[in-house]
Design a protein that fits this description.
Layout (H helix, E strand, L loop, with lengths): L5 H10 L3 H5 L1 H4 L5 H24 L20 H8 L9 E5 L6 H14 L4 E5 H9 L4 H12 L3 E7 L6 H14 L4 E6 L6 H4 L12 E2 L6
Parallel strand pairs: 1-4, 1-5, 2-3, 3-4
Helix pairs in contact: 7-8, 7-9
Length: about 220
């Protein structure tokens, strides 16, 4: 809800960085065209911001939850998914892990949460574990690696899809550990995997997820 009180109008103009308008504020403060002008500018910037964040998030096409088959998988906790869609987990930087076999909708659920996060005004990055780790491992200088780690650490929500589908080298495991360490208790991360926690030692170094699991919210293991 917007207000037309002079102080509120000026605050909105300052938030929009309309310096020319503010410089002539005594002349424009009572003009009838000012409130709709500010509203138009706010709406346009909000739309442009969403378009930009959608483009950089790389979520891809996905099935909305209204079309999701909740009868498969049988053990998917719908109430937990609905709670996650409220995005409260972002407040305390909790993490989410979707565990289950291939083809049951783990990525779809993660994409829906990621999209809801974008709509709420947050930044998101969606990537597969293989793509992300390959990207990081290919860098041959410390400065380039630090910059790229900041790229993955920066979004308010990072979705790492398909963790455990391939075995990782020690180098990949170290990079995963470094990234999760940077995000832990600062930003939320969603992971999808086809491997239960008991098997993660087989695909990564033992301590890779020791940090991340402390803040995990587990919406059920679909089977």
């Amino acid at each position: 809800m917007t207000t037309t009180e002079p102080e509120a109008l000026r605050a909105r103009a300052e938030a929009l960085h309309l310096h020319g308008l503010i410089a002539h504020w005594p002349e424009v403060a009572t003009q009838t065209w000012l409130p709709p002008l500010l509203a138009w500018e706010e709406q346009e910037r909000s739309c442009r911001s969403l378009e930009r964040r959608l483009k950089t998030a790389h979520i891809g096409r996905f099935k909305p939850l209204c079309d999701f088959d909740w009868s498969w998988p049988k053990r998917c906790d719908r109430a937990a998914i609905d709670a996650l869609m409220a995005l409260d987990f972002l407040t305390d930087a909790s993490n989410i892990v979707f565990v289950g076999p291939n083809g049951i909708g783990k990525s779809t659920l993660a994409q829906n949460i990621a999209h809801q996060t974008l709509i709420a005004g947050h930044t998101v990055l969606f990537t597969s574990a293989g793509q992300m780790l390959g990207d990081l491992a290919a860098l041959d200088s410390d400065s380039a690696l630090r910059r790229r780690l900041r790229h993955y650490a920066r979004p308010q929500l990072l979705v790492i899809d398909e963790v455990g589908y391939l075995a990782y080298s020690n180098r990949h495991a170290d990079l995963m550990f470094e990234l999760i360490s940077r995000r832990y208790q600062n930003k939320s991360t969603i992971v999808t995997t086809n491997r239960p926690f008991a098997e993660w030692r087989e695909i990564e170094q033992p301590d890779v997820w020791k940090i991340g699991r402390a803040g995990v919210r587990h919406p059920g293991s679909p089977t």
